[in-house]
Amino acid sequence: MCSVLDATAAAESDRRDPDHDTSGGADTRPAAGVGTGQAESGGRGGDGRSGGRGTRLNGKVALERARASLPGLVLSAAAAAVAVVAARLLGGISPLLIAILLGAVVANLGTLPAVFEPGVTVASRRLLRIGVALLGLQLLLPNVLALGWGTLAVVTAVVGLGIAGSMALGKLLGIGWTQRLLIACSFSICGAAAAAAADGVVNARKRELVTTIALVVVFGTVMIPALPAAAAALGLDSTQAGMWAGAAIHEVAQVVAAGGALDAGSSAAAVGGGALAIAVTVKLARVALLAPVVAWIGVASRRRTATPTQTRRPPLVPLFLVGFLACVALRATGVLGPGWLDAARLTQTALLTAAMFALGTGVRLSVLRGVGWRPFALAAASTIIVAATALTGVLLVG
């Protein structure tokens, strides 16, 4: 995996286009009036008041940006609430899936008013990354280690071979480095959260991120009924079926849905109970690899974009990844009781659901038609690689 990332990073350059969204990064443009204020203070002999004036002006700009973002954030929050309620009423459907479909419907029925765009952009990037950081609170390392070295080796192989194979096939298909990197990470680790994490260090185009999320939704949803049916056909027991689901399916929520289907159909499909708990634990073991993989991508991306005239390079370790590791460490201390963990889980779900709605507003059919067949082919191939690697490992270990 490392050699593929490094080689492709060094060999290629990815051109930017108007679809590229850098809203998640620092704004290096001076705020309106700041330069004027500094010049005035210099003209008065540098009386020491320019710092205070600059602070007040920056605070005013920040307040104006917050106000501009409010309508879009409120819309995203309302959509998230609708998605959560709908998921509870329907049962077995992820609110994240409902939210991104709702966003896509809104985007394709008409043009989203410009007043919502700043807040929707904030939701699609910042809220998504905060939700990824909070995902660390779900990781209880002793439970992951209790899976045993065999299972952990399977998880590592799934992530490593999934990323390496997807990157290699994507290159053969002529897909750009950032697009195939997002697909490889999201399909091999943990879906939208992994795509957001990778985007945090490579600054992919907004269209590439939206395309990846849409592909995760499509192929991950197909696997929810398909994997339990395949497990039954193969005669896998509860442990094997749960391991396969956790090691093969993209999103945590999709793993939960598939694990529930495995347990619900245990009597008819010769699959014993308890598959859900095993599936979630194995899935979280994959999530645990998010931090080292993203750190490596950061190194590869910095090498790839290093030029003598470059003024801004992707961060080696983005802030939200530091937050993810901090949450993992906090969970390991045991200081958070069940109430706090439940609240954190609800907060994470709310943030990710709002972010999925915001991302869904970028899923326009016209844009997806313009993407072409190659990303879809790579997504299908990535699904097969990950599922086949996981099944082989399960049969060898289980």
Topology of helices and strands:
Layout: H1 2-11, H2 34-43, H3 50-90, H4 95-109, H5 117-134, H6 141-145, H7 149-172, H8 177-190, H9 192-202, H10 206-234, H11 238-248, H12 252-264, H13 266-269, H14 275-288, H15 290-305, H16 319-333, H17 338-360, H18 365-371, H19 374-397
Helix pairs in contact: 1-7, 1-15, 2-3, 3-4, 3-5, 3-17, 4-17, 5-9, 5-16, 5-17, 7-8, 7-14, 7-19, 8-9, 8-10, 8-19, 9-10, 9-15, 10-11, 10-12, 10-19, 11-12, 11-14, 11-19, 12-14
How would you describe this structure to a colleague?
The chain is mainly alpha-helical. Helix content is 76%, strand content 0%. It contains 19 helices and no strands. It has helices at residues 2-11, 34-43, 50-90, 95-109, 117-134, 141-145, 149-172, 177-190, 192-202, 206-234, 238-248, 252-264, 266-269, 275-288, 290-305, 319-333, 338-360, 365-371, 374-397. α5 (117-134) crosses α9 (192-202). It is globular.
